[in-house]
Specification:
heterodimer, A: alpha+beta, B: alpha+beta, four-stranded mixed β-sheet, 29% helix
Chain lengths: 41, 230
């Protein structure tokens, strides 16, 4: 696996980036992790 | 079998002049399987890494907050408190854990008991040393650190197996940190300092008592707090 920096920026980032969007609903941690392991093969 | 991981340091901020500047780092990833790997292993790696790895990822850092995107999940971490929030944009759901320790515990709980038992039966050896190679990445002086990990699985239902993993990490030099103090924004050591979270302890707990050597090596490799891959 190779991971390489593609670009970087020091532009200001909106505070909203670090907040949960208002239309999201809470779910159990395990349920979200299952979304990762249930990717299509 | 040998797997190489090449990381490029988050060489940030050619233009920024303030240590408190926001920081956005975008990465691209590729995944290839060693052509000499046994077919069974190669297929497993393709289905595992290949199916879940995202070719693009990004980190957004603002003060003590970090927002990361990679694949179907995004995450937010507050360095000051250790609070971690996972977000799943496709279904617009989120989950929050109050500390990185709780995050690791939740992850471990998801592993089948058989997997935990299998991991604890493996033997690990790990070495870290500077290769002597140096590079300038986006005007930032960096030096290569090679971490080599060997994993031996004892014979069981399956034949014994040895896996060797090499991680090539480009670390910012002290000179780089002096010239670009903004890089400290990407210092994950802040999390340890603020929350008493010991990521190496969590890692070694996962891999059993034989990995105390791993802990020592990793602590030595990262004790400077210099940013590496991300």
């Amino acid at each position: 696996m190779s991971t390489e920096l593609d670009s970087f920026s020091s532009d200001p980032i909106a505070d909203s980036v670090f907040a949960v969007p208002p239309d999201y609903t809470a779910a159990p941690f395990a349920d979200l992790m299952k979304e990762v392991t249930a990717v299509k093969r | 079998m040998q797997t190489r991981h090449f990381f490029l340091l988050p060489a940030a901020l050619l233009f920024a002049h303030s240590a408190s500047a926001d920081l956005t780092l975008r990465y691209k990833s590729t995944f290839t399987v060693n052509p000499n790997a046994p077919p069974m292993i190669a297929d497993a790696m393709k289905q595992g890494f290949g199916a879940t790895m995202s070719p693009e990822s990004a980190n957004y850092i603002k003060g003590d907050k970090v927002f990361s995107t990679q694949g179907p999940l995004s995450s937010m971490m507050e360095m000051a408190t250790g609070k971690v929030t996972l977000l799943h944009p496709p279904t617009k759901r989120y989950a929050t854990v109050d500390s990185p320790g709780e995050f690791v515990a939740q992850m471990n709980a998801l592993l089948p008991a058989a997997a935990n038992q299998s991991l604890s039966g493996m033997q690990f050896d790990i070495k870290a040393q500077k290769s002597g190679k140096a590079a300038v990445i986006h005007d930032l002086p960096a030096e290569e650190l090679v971490i080599t990990m060997t994993i031996e699985a004892p014979a069981g239902p399956a034949p014994p197996m040895q896996i060797r993993v090499e991680m090539h990490m480009w670390m910012a030099t002290q000179e780089a940190m002096t010239r670009f103090p903004e890089l400290k924004q990407a210092d994950r050591g802040k999390l340890t300092a603020n929350t008493s979270f010991d990521p190496f302890s969590a890692l070694t707990r996962t891999f059993g008592a034989s990995s105390e050597k791993m802990r020592a090596i990793l602590e030595q490799a990262f004790k400077t707090g210099r940013p590496a891959s991300r």
